[in-house]
Amino acid sequence: MFGIGLPEIIVILVICLVLFDVKNLPKIARSLGKAIKEFKNAQKSLTGDDNEKPAG
């Protein structure tokens, strides 16, 4: 997983908890997930790599 082990993930999570309030973390994660999804959709539309089969 990108060369990141469990201790590094724990340190990153602790830093996030310190920098951002616990109440704000779900909002941040949700917006980050939406941004990644939009980026992937835009990338698919630019490259024309639609894996979906046509209906019917």
Task: Tell me about this structure.
By secondary structure, this protein is mainly alpha-helical. The protein has a domain at 14-44. Helix content is 66%, strand content 0%. The protein is built from two helices and no strands. It has helices at 6-19, 25-47. The longest helix is centred in the middle third of the chain and has 23 residues, at 25-47. It is flat, with a radius of gyration of 17 Å. The chain starts with 5 loop residues before the first helix and ends in a 9-residue tail after the last helix. The model has no long low-confidence stretch (mean pLDDT 82).
List the helices and strands and how they pair.
Layout: H1 6-19, H2 25-47
Index terms:
0% strand, 56 residues, mainly alpha, flat, 2 helices, single chain
Short summary:
The protein is an all-alpha fold and 56 residues long. It has helices at 6-19, 25-47. The chain has a domain at 14-44.
Shape: flat
Low-confidence stretches: none
Number of strands: 0
Counting H and I runs of at least 4 residues, what is the number of helices? 2
The secondary-structure element order is HH
Q: What is the first-to-last residue Cα distance? A: 39 Å
Radius of gyration, in Å, reads: 17 Å
Profile the largest sheet.
none
Average pLDDT confidence is: 82
**Percent of residues in beta strands:** under 5%
Helix content: 55-70%
Derived structural class: mainly alpha
